[in-house]
Specification:
By secondary structure, the protein is mainly alpha-helical. 76% of the residues lie in helices and 0% in strands. It is globular and about 60 Å long.
């Protein structure tokens, strides 16, 4: 009835708000500020994400930031699914990335949303997550560029959305979100093509 519809809508709204608020917790900003006293958005590329954290405070803390970002994405999607089933999970997937990329308390200047998107993807579709993760790790190991791994992971999410037997709504969303994250990496793509992107990991030959 009408009451159930209202409750469903409220559950979806709540899932979206919680995901946005969790997404807006910028671990890159917090940890860099605690360690160096500096605003990560004034360092390196200015992005509040894993790669820039590695430049600012070193790789071990950058790995911690990445793990926490994955965790907040995973938790957001799990809460979303608990509140409003698949729809809630999908909304949480969108809004945790929006929160991470545009955190209200950092004047809407955050990271690129790869790690938290990966966490949400793990909750929603472990298969697509596994494919994307394999591509990410492979590219980072081969090239030493986290940005190249992220771009490859997004491309694999797009391919997976077209090829794997996922629900149509999931496919559309994966295409949209992976496309958005790729767009956020447009400067990295340009630097990779120009050969001016700085390596995150120097692979010893």
């Amino acid at each position: 009835g009408g009451y159930n519809k209202v409750m469903d809508i409220l559950s979806c709204v709540l899932a979206s708000v919680i995901a946005y608020l969790l997404g807006s917790i910028s671990f890159a900003y917090i940890i860099t500020k605690m360690v160096t006293g500096k605003d990560i958005r004034t360092i390196g590329s200015g992005s509040a994400g894993t790669t820039n954290t590695a430049r600012a405070v070193g790789k071990p803390l950058a790995a911690l930031v990445m793990a926490l970002d994955i965790l907040k994405g995973f938790v957001s999607a799990e809460i979303g699914m608990w509140l409003a089933a698949e729809t809630g999970g999908l909304l949480a997937f969108v809004f945790v990335i929006v929160g991470h990329t545009f955190p209200f308390w950092l004047k809407f200047h955050g990271g690129k949303g790869v790690a938290c998107g990966a966490g949400a993807l793990l909750a929603l579709s472990p298969l697509v997550f596994s494919v994307a993760l394999a591509g990410f790790v492979l590219l980072v190991v081969i090239t030493g560029y986290v940005s190249a791994g992220s771009i490859c992971a997004c491309a694999l999410v797009i391919i997976s959305a077209l090829v794997l037997p996922e629900p149509l709504l999931f496919r559309v969303l994966y295409l949209l979100m992976a496309g958005t994250v790729l767009f956020m990496h447009r400067a990295n793509i340009k630097r990779l093509l120009n050969g001016t992107e700085s390596k995150t990991f120097h692979i010893k030959k």
